[in-house]
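USER: Note each token:
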Amino acid sequence: MVKSKDTTQDSKIAYKILIEPWITEESTRQAELNKYVFRVSERADKKQIERSIEGVYSVKVVSVNTISIPKKPRYRGNKLGWKSGYKKAIVTVKEGDKIDIFEK
């Protein structure tokens, strides 16, 4: 017996994995090469990121590269605080597919 796929549950998880698109000058240049940068959940793995991108943007993902940025100490006067760390994903999509980040 084949189980039916619950797309509403997948979309809820996808929006928890993909936090926001990472829009900088460099990421805009990479978009011309079919590479898109997203800030993602620190617990997400590459397969989850791939499924989320394919589900939300309806594109075929070729590869996913991730970068974990550690938290950094910051001082305000003599008080020590921390700038939070985060995780980025560089997603390469199939030639011909496009993600319009500014539209969503």
Q: What stands out?
A: The CA atoms of residues 15 and 63 lie 20 Å apart. The mean pLDDT is 88. Residues 16-93 form a domain with the Alpha-Beta Plaits fold (CATH 3.30.70.330). Residues 46-57 form the longest helix (12 residues).
